[in-house]
Each structure stands twice: as C-alpha cells, then as structure tokens.
C-alpha cells in the first residue's frame, strides 16, 4: 500500500475537483486533498500544509495557474506542479514546462492523470534523494578538506613514482618549502644517501614507514601511515604523518642518560634499590647485592622487610607510610641482616610518581654507617660517663662547701663575741650561696647552666632562715624573669644577691619590719638586677665606691668580675646592677 499523499487542487469548479479525486482513487492512490480558489488560500496551504503535489487549473475567476506555479517555485521548489485544464495550447504547455511545471493533463483526458501524478512523484523523490546525496557528498568533501588542511600532522598524497600530488600546510612546515617547489619534487629527493631506497610500490594498507629525511641540512624523522587508493587504472598513496624528530632526539638523549645512569649505579659504592609500596624489590644495584651477599636474581621480587632488625621494624614501617605523603622523601637509619651480620644502613628514600600523579614505586640510596654508629655509641657512653663524673664533682663540691660551712658553725658556737659570730655567719652564707649553685647543677639535666630565678628564690629562703627573719614581718617581693645563666655568671651574681639581701636584713630594719623588692630582667644581651627596700635610709655621706665595709667591697669586686656597672638611687634605696653573661674561659 502506497504512503498517503497530500494533494493540493487549485480549481474553482467543485465537480471538476471531484472528477480529479475520483480518477486518483481509481488509480489506487491513498491521498488527502484540499481544494482552493483564491491566491491567499493557495499561499497558506503551500506554506503550512506542505502538499506532496499541486494540481492546478490554467485559469480561475480570481487567480491563475501561471501565478500559482511561480508561487510554488518560490515557497516549495521541490513540489511537483501539474496543470489540469480544460483547454491549453501546445505553445503555452511548452512554455510552462520550461518555467518549471512538471506536466500537463487535459480535463477531457483525465485517464492520463494517474500516470502523470505517479511519474511526477517518482521524479520528485529521485530528485530529492539525488540532492540529499549531493549535499552529503559536498559536506563530506568539506569535512575531508577541513581535516586535511587543519590537521597539525603532515598529510600527503603521493603518485606511484613518489611525486608529491597533494599536501597540507603541516607538510609544508615540516619540509620547509613552498607549495610550487614541493609539487616539483619526489620523496626520494629528500631521503639520506645511506638510507634504504623508498619502494612505494611495496607500500600496503596499514603499513607504517619511518623515513629519515634531510631538510635544509638537518635530518628530520617522518613517520607515515600508508593507505593505497585505486583510482581506475591509477594508484595513489595517501599517507598521514607524524614528526618524530623531537621524539627521536629525546629517545637518543634518554638512551645516553640511561647508559650514564647505569654506569653510575653499577660503579658507585652506595647501595641503590627500587621497591614497590609493599616492599618488593624491583631493582638492586651491584653494591646492594654485594652487601647482602646474595645474587641479583634472588633479591629481585623478594621483600626486604624480613631483613630489617626487629627493633627497627616499626620505625621502618612508619618511614614507608610517610613516603605515601608529600614531600614523598624520608631519611632512615636501621639495621639490616647481611652476609657480615647486622649492619647499620642510612637510607635516603624518595617516592616515584607516574604521569597521572599516582604512587608507582620508591627509590632508596643507602650507605653502610656501621662504623660511624659504633663510634657514636662509644662517644655517647663516654659522654654519659663524663656526665656522671661531672654530676659527682658538683655533688662533692657542694658537700665539701657544706662541710666548710658546718665547721664554721661549730667554730662560731665557741665564740661569745657577737661581731665575730656575725662574721662567721656571713662567711657561711657566702659559702652556702656557692654550694647552692653546685646543688642546682648536679640536679639539673643541663650541667653548664642553671635557672637563675629558681636559684635566687632558694637563696633568699636560706638567708631568711639564717638570719631568723619572720616572713610575716619582713616581706620580700620578687619579680624575676626566667633567666638561664652559666656557672661563670651565676656564682658572682648569686654572691651579689647574697651580700645585698644580707646587708638589708642586718641594717635596714631595726624594728624587724619592712619590705624588700628584688627584680631581675633581661634586655637584649644585658641582665638588670634591682634590689631596694623601705627600711632605714642610707647615711647622707654614703657612697658606694668609697665604702670600706667588706660586704660592699665584695659587691664591687663581683660587679667588676662580671664586667658590669652598679648604681645607687639613695632616694628609694635602689641598687641597680647591669651586667652581661660571661663566656667560659679556659683555665690553665
């Protein structure tokens, strides 16, 4: 059954339209028809209904077939147009056919209408298919030409004798010539003399040919993928190319680099090993095999973790975990079981990433540091022994000073003169201030420095106890920064504090009541010690530099020993001592 067609009938006589429809049904057409008489109706139907065929009378009261033909060609040029008229001259019919009418049928001979309609529809369909094919071919050619011209890879068409028949801009750029020049050349003109002759007749479909070509005095490598095409009795070669010049240079440079790397790895004393994230060895240098005392074949594919000392296994595994995170580098020292027993190996390990940024493997460069570790152990044992000895010395010095203090105490117990007893007690306090330094040192982890703030607090507690001071009557305010001092500075500094606090406790508070303020700060490289009290004022003629008391002479001597400066503000009774930390001086 034929597909239903849409028939537009331009006819002012309904009966004639019915006769046309009857004839079409008689011929077996499945159709729908619309009849129109006026131009506006006709235009609307052609534009909106889009009929498959138009059957038009020659002349209508308000319209005519010639105008209808013109409108049809403008709005729907592929739609067949057949004149169906009662009377039409032969000259007019020929003229209409020249203007694009498909056919004409006289009304008194409608038996020919079915044949004319079927032939018109068939020709229209063939014409449409041909047009579609032509447009597709044109589009295909445009795409091919665009692809041919725009591709960045050289694309060449050769004749069988090797002449350049067609090429794109990428070919010209590669060959470094003008189009006119290349059309006069053959591929053989560019091949190297020592290269094998180019045999185009042997080039088959799918073959890949790599050609070294000499261009402008420089050798370039062109890779061609061959597609032979038969054109009647002739044969052409269609070849798509790739410039391999840079790649080949890089490959040659890489080969040279790999050769240098191989020589470097195989001849260096440091061990080089490559392993995957699970610890499986992928590469082992000769030095690594030599240290382990095993062949390369037995090492490759094995896991190195069982060779790690049990005590070093956890830190080795932690190091491997760190290699999975930026910066993908770790440094590790562990013991490894070798042909010579356990050996200490220092490793510098780095992760290798693939092009996608994914972890691929690890490379480690190791060095045997067993002798160094043994030497370090000996040094550490020696240092520990010396540290114990030094602590013992500080302890014994403190004990000896306490013995001296005890002897002075025993000696003073037999003396009745209070002034002499006071002298003994002052000497005891000075000795104890030095002993306290040594006590802090042997109890500290640092045998060269002490926390001066903690030391001063303990020293003042001992002085208050020595003089029998009631802390509720005589109060001391301390504003001391956490200052660390070496023994060279701490001993004279502690003696200065001892003398100033002792003098204050002895002379400043006849009523046994008052306050002492002690402040220790650090400003840049200088230590600033301030001591003041609210007790009895100094005599008007008192001068620090001119006093002849033992305590003040000792203070001045100690300040000088510290390369410091002492000042006194008589108004608020404040001593200010400014000094720097002394550097250790070697004794002879």
From TrEMBL:
It comes from the Archaea. The keyword Metal-binding does not apply. Residues 6-122 form the Response regulatory domain. InterPro entries: CheY-like_superfamily, HATPase_C_sf, HATPase_dom, PAC, PAS, PAS-assoc_C, PAS-like_dom_sf, PAS_fold_3. Gene3D superfamilies: 3.40.50.2300, Histidine kinase-like ATPase, C-terminal domain (3.30.565.10), PAS domain (3.30.450.20). Keywords: Kinase, Phosphoprotein, Transferase. Residues 140-194, 257-327 form the PAS domain. Transmembrane segments: none annotated. GO terms for molecular function: kinase activity. The modification 4-aspartylphosphate is found at residue 57. The keyword Phosphoprotein applies. GO terms for biological process: phosphorelay signal transduction system. PROSITE patterns: PAC, PAS, RESPONSE_REGULATORY. NCBIfam families: sensory_box. PANTHER family: SENSOR HISTIDINE KINASE, SENSOR HISTIDINE KINASE PDTAS. This is Histidine kinase/PAS domain-containing protein. It comes from Methanobacterium formicicum.
């Amino acid at each position: 059954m034929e597909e239903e067609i849409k028939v537009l009938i331009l006819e002012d006589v309904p009966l004639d339209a019915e006769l046309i429809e009857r004839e079409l049904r008689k011929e077996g057409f499945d159709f729908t028809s619309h009849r129109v008489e006026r131009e506006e109706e006709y235009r609307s139907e052609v534009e909106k209904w889009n009929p498959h065929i138009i059957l038009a009378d020659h002349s209508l009261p308000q319209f005519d077939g010639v105008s209808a033909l013109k409108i049809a060609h403008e709005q729907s040029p592929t739609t067949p147009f057949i004149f169906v008229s009662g009377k039409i001259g032969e000259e007019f019919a020929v003229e209409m056919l020249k203007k694009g009418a498909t056919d004409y049928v006289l009304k008194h001979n409608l038996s020919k209408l079915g044949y004319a309609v079927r032939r018109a529809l068939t020709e229209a369909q063939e014409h449409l298919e041909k047009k579609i094919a032509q447009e597709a071919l044109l589009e295909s050619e445009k795409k091919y030409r665009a692809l041919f011209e725009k591709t960045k890879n050289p694309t060449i068409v050769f004749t069988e004798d090797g002449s350049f028949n067609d090429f794109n801009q990428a070919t010209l750029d590669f060959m470094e010539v003008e189009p006119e020049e290349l059309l006069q050349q053959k591929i053989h003109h560019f091949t190297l003399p020592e290269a094998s002759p180019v045999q185009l007749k042997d080039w088959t479909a799918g073959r890949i040919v790599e050609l070294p070509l000499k261009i402008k005095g420089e050798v370039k490598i062109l890779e061609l993928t061959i597609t032979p095409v038969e054109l009647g009795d002739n044969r052409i070669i269609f070849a798509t190319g790739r410039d391999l010049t840079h790649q080949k240079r890089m490959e040659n440079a890489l080969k040279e680099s790999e050769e240098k790397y191989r020589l470097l790895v195989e001849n260096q004393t440091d061990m080089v090993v490559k392993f995957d994230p699970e610890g499986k060895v992928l590469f082992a240098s000769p030095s690594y095999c030599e240290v382990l005392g095993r062949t390369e074949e037995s090492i490759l594919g094995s896991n190195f973790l069982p060779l790690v000392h049990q005590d070093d296994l956890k830190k080795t595994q932690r190091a491997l975990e760190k290699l999975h995170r930026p910066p993908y580098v770790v440094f590790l020292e562990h013991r490894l079981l070798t042909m010579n027993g356990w050996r200490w190996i220092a490793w510098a390990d780095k992760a290798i990433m693939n092009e996608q940024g994914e972890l691929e493997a690890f490379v480690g460069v190791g060095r045997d540091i067993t002798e160094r570790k043994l030497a370090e152990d000996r040094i550490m044992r020696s240092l520990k022994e010396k540290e114990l000895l030094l602590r013992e010395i500080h302890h014994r010095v403190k004990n000896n000073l306490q013995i001296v203090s005890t002897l002075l105490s025993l000696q003073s117990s037999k003396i009745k003169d209070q002034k002499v007893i006071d002298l003994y007690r002052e000497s005891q306090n000075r000795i104890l201030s030095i002993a306290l330094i040594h006590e802090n040192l042997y109890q500290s982890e640092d045998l060269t420095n002490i926390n001066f703030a903690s030391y001063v607090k303990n020293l003042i507690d001992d002085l208050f106890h020595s003089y029998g001071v009631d802390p509720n009557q005589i109060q001391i305010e301390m504003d001391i920064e956490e200052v660390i001092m070496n023994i060279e500075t701490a001993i004279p500094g502690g003696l200065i504090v001892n003398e100033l606090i002792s003098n204050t406790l002895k002379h400043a508070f006849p009523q046994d009541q008052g306050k002492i303020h002690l402040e220790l700060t650090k400003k840049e490289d200088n230590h600033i010690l301030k001591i003041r009290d609210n007790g009895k004022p100094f005599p008007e003629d008192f001068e620090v530099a001119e006093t002849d008391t033992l305590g003040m002479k000792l203070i001045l001597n100690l300040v000088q020993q510290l390369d410091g400066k002492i000042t006194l503000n008589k108004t608020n009774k404040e001593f200010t001592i400014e000094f720097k930390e002394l550097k250790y001086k070697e004794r002879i």
